Please model this.
Amino acid sequence: MSTAGEVPAFFKSMGSDSPARPRQKFCGMFCPVEGSSDSKTLDFDALSACRGKSDGRVIDRQTDISQPRKVEIRESTGKEALQNLDDKRSDRLLIKGAKIVNDDQSFCADIYMEDGVIKQIGENLIVPGGVKTIDAHGGMLMPGGIDVHTRFQMPDRGMTAADDFYQGTKAALAGGTTMIIDHVIPEPGISLISAFEQWREWADSKSCCDYSLHVDITEWHKGIQEEMETLVKDHGVNSFLVYLAYKDIFQLTDSQVYEVFSVIRDLGAIAQVHAENGDIVAEEQRRILEQGITGPEGHVLSRPEEVEAEAVNRSVTVANQTNCPLYVTKVMSKSAADVIAQARKKGTVVYGEPITASLGTDGSHYWSKNWAKAAAYVTSPPLSPDPTTPDYLNSLLSCGDLQVTGSAHCPFNTAQRAVGKDDFSLIPEGVNGTEERMSIIWDKCVVTGKMDENQFVAVTSTNAAKIFNLYPRKGRIAVGSDADLVLWDPDLTKIISAKSHNSTVEYNIFEGTEVRGGPLVVISQGKIVLEEGNLHATEGSGRYVARKPFPDYVYKRIKARSRLAELRGVPRGLYDGPVCEVSVTPKTMTPASSAKTSPAKQPNQPVRNLHQSGFSLSGAQIDDNVPRRNTQRIVAPPGGRANITSLG
Amino acid sequence: LPTTVYRGKRDFDRLLIKGGRIVNDDQSFHADIYMEDGLIKQIGDNLIVPGGVKTIEANGKMVIPGGIDIHTHFQMPYRGTTTVDDFNQGSKAALAGGTTMIVDHVIPEPGTSLMEAYDQWRQWADEKTCCDYSLHVDITHWNDSVKQEVDNLIKEKGVNSFHVYMAYKDYYQMSNSELYEVFTFLAERGGIAQVHAENGEIIAEEQARMLQMGITGPEGHVLSRPEELEAEAVFRAITIASQTNCPLYVTRVMSKSAADIISQARKKGNVVFGEPITASLGTDGTHYWSKNWAKAASFVTSPPLSPDPTTPDYLNTLLSSGDLSVTGSAHCTFSVAQKAIGKDDFTQIPEGVNGVEERMALIWDKAVTTGKMDENMFVAVTSTNAAKILNLYPRKGRIAVGSDADLVIWDTDSIRTITAKTHNSAAEYNVFEGMELRGAPLVVICQGKIVLEDGNLHATSGVGRFIPCSPFPDFAYKRVKARKQLAVLRAVPRGMYDGPVSEFSMSRGGTPSASARTSPTKQPVRNLHQSGFSLAGPPTPDDVPIRPAGRRIVVPPGGRSNITSLS
Model:
């Protein structure tokens, strides 16, 4: 954070310029914020007065609902305003009369920002002169959205996704999203670090909002492990994605996934997974092409939702086994969502990410007669042809079984899609959604009464910030947090169309959808980027936000479990009866059904193959030199559970 | 009903059971039964029978179809040694417990011929078995010649069930693609796909971790194979089976979570059968922590017994409700000296528990006396369902005119204590040691002859016949066939796309190709794009045949794409 040093200085004078009451400090809530010092928090007592008053205000506000809500943005006059313009890095901004909506509560207060950071929250703030003021008239002010899954400017077989970091982040800002997390996809064989640096370069030069990066693990060997360590320690990456699909390209085996997850847990990162059974998908693709089905409907026919649910189930199992937190990207079907919900009930640390497309539309369009339209919906896992899926996923999102939302924004234009015009398996994958995400969720969940405004903030912003260790710098409106805010108009209606969207592609998969709710004003890094429908995004202004490992939200439980999950052997007297002779090379012998050692463990065998020659069937054993483990405690007692991570 | 009269190796007795209560899986009724030449000839009251007939007075006791133990491993070779119960010893134990037919697993060494292994097993069994038997064949590797052999086994050798392994990494384990191919092939030929469901890759990792931690005793066996891994593999197997529209049979359901997945899948309409075994229905995995190494090792089997002591009760409940369909024993016993091969490394302990003799009594005690199931259901899970799956019904698994004379007169009140001292197996340990069971066979009739009477066993080695199983059992395949007809996929008839097409590289040498999801196997067929297309002009539509416009869309937009999922 660029303002790290200044924040404490600002707070030295606190109490004198805080009008109502000095904000009392308790340690805790915001400690992890870089540079926000340890003695700041919201003074809820002070704010409760405001809340009490707001009861009266609700009625006031209801009266003016009939009138179009308007927001006034006033500039201070003359010199001060000019100063403000000169110094772009210290935009001073005051929002008056807003209803601040966090994930836990809503309250009325004014909010003052400086240098891209929220400096004061309260009523009758004393602010310096020359401050631009926004009068919110009781409108909802919420933390800017965080789109946890984008793939801007993604290379694919010599092509590049249609929206680069500039176009993409502009679209994000237009929809109320002020931070994106993009995926770095190193080609197998290419170093993770160099791919990461390539993405940094692209994003730094073009991104209009803050961003961070996930890194995808597309192959597995010792070198990758070291690079992951470097990325976590020196480059602020705390999430890695593995693929269970894309056979022979990105796909990892179960053993590799097990090892990757073990490494991720030791590093304190989050394991993300693209969950589809790539083996089955490959077989089905071949079968369907053989049947002469080459259009986009083949895409969804070859990837039935069962295959997604199976892979989710498998990755949950591996994550449980390795005690590693799991994050399932792109939850597209009911059955996959159900598997996640069940696993959470059993106590697994798993998070599910539905995307704009799965929340907003379904896979019936794959059967469209218009090839280009059908192809525009191609993404993996595919949209479910079951039209009740979006409603179901919205319900699970509302009840907390799914936690975060991304867009997996990765559109290709029609000419690029047409690479697969004779073979659906060659169609580049990805749909749009970064701009529509917040509005779709508001329309499908809040307007319908599935969730309230606070839960809306949680699923569009706060939960993402918590999982990826950005909280409370991002994902919350609080003193010391970044000034990424959205003034949300719940009544704004809009018809989504490719004609008016900010993406560069010809098709919008939500074409013609009428959504209620949209951003009125968007503030990113303390600067107004959207007002009155005008976007003022600045190319290259986005900063890379480094993320630390071991996010509390995720790792508190993991840490406790690893302490408990130590396994102990049973102290026994040594077996001293007769031992059968056995042939060492079972492969050349008659069938050996129970030889369950895997060659992976061959290194262990030399330690253990005393039997081979040294034992006599009758007499004394050579067990004197083997230390007895008499003092070990049995942590997993008979009748107890062997696997401590399973709470079910 | 099959009317073939099997010419036996000896004279068959004529036998009349009077005053018994006949219990089939659908109903119970009072009637007399007359048997001749190993077949049931008459059922009814006041039968007219020839003279010189031996008569058994049942006095109102239950007469049930003899049990079918659908899963045994008698005389199984293991790294140069053999399980202590051979086909003689094992089938004797089976008869003593009221089981009159066993189905053994043929395990060909990976890389060797299935057919040779099958012949070997036939030879062993024909020499020694005391009761009728049939064989499952395990597929331990997969290629075209194996495929051919599977085909021959189904068509000519009377095998309709094949077993694949998802565990035993780098040994028996099959990849998902191989499973898909095996299942596809079996679905075409009318076989049943059996699966040993455990995630072998994760087990290998966990075993390495346990050994590194210094855990070498039998408790390491269960710690390295938590029940989640079983449940995961069951889930995966069901997914693949549903994809390939192949009936699935999960052997050895050992844990609650695996059983739950099976019952969920059945609710969704999957054709899947679950087989709990005597051990999982009768005991639990707490014994792995026994201080007595030999005792702990005697419980080693895979998937392991669950350390959760409520598991047996739960599995009995699901068996009673019909979510689990059949019961086997997975009887595969090793002596203590053989188990001691793994005394310093649990991964080397030969796997297998006893259970063929105890199976019927144990289920009666745990499920019928507790009121979970009735006597008809008892017959279904111990005999009839197995016969239906193997396509042997109603020759086996039912008391009806024309069926084989494999009967058991069941005493519901007799109480026995199980112990290794009195059991018929050759093993030194019995995993049910000390258990008191209510319910036991009073008289066992196999092939029309009395083999158990007054506690005395008169089994004759080598009288057991191989019973061939034919493919496409109705019990499994009626639904599968109906779905096959429905599940035809059709393409959407569209005009050809004639807009611009981007250039792209097929080789992945250059920049990252995120969405290149074609597997290399398909590429040669499809790589027209690589060179032939120009960016500029619209491609001439004449080159490419336009797809017929008259095709009907069977799977409509908004409908389900996967017809086998009924949910």
